[in-house]
Amino acid sequence: MEQCLFCKIVDGKIPAEIVYRDDSVVAFKDINPQAPVHVLVIPVKHVAKLTDPAASDGKMLSQIFATIARLAGELGLEKGFRVVANCGDEAGQTVHHIHFHVLGKRRLNWPPG
Ligand code: 5GP
Ligand code: ZN
Predict the structure, then answer these.
(1) How many angstroms is it from 107 CA to the middle of ligand 2?
(2) Which of 39, 53, 82, 103 is the most exposed place for a label (fewest CB within 10 A)?
(3) Do the domain assignments include residue 84?
(4) 97 is catalytic
């Protein structure tokens, strides 16, 4: 079966600027950054969207959020940052492998667009 784009990044078949990886989680710079810091944090395991039952894996989610917290320190986001997970068409999900956008190093407006 054809792999999804982010599974190809996990497997190194498509290059990406990886900022963190372990056996469960990979984080890499977004190709079209919306802020001076814009990284995507994903599980190694393919899960298409947040509403899939496999997305409610507590261990996987804690590994993702531990990675986000560590990256916030490493990437100099002590003034604040935002985590975004788009789910479904209306939210603008374009890649069907769950991912958490981490955005920072600029003033982030609310409500979002
Ligand atoms: P979504 O719109 O699904 O929430 O976010 C998908 C994100 O993946 C977008 O911000 C887009 O810029 C990013 N993206 C799409 N293709 C690639 C790619 O090949 N490499 C990287 N590093 N990011 C990508
Ligand atoms: Zn995938």
Answers:
(1) 31
(2) 53
(3) yes
(4) no
Q: How many domains does one find in the chain? A: 1
Q: Taking residues 59-73, what's their average pLDDT?
A: 98
111: which residues sit within 8 A by CB, 6+ positions away? none
Q: How far is the CA of 94 from the centre of ligand 1 (A)?
A: 7
Cis, bond preceding 36 (omega within 30 deg of 0):
no
Q: In this structure, which ligand is nearest to the CA of 16?
A: 1
Domain hosting 37: range is: 5-104
Percentages helix, strand, coil for the chain, rounded to the nearest 5? Answer: 25, 20, 55
Residue with token string 């958490």: 100
- Locate 75 and state its tokens: 């990437």
Whole-number pLDDT of residue 1: 80
Across 8-36, average pLDDT: 98
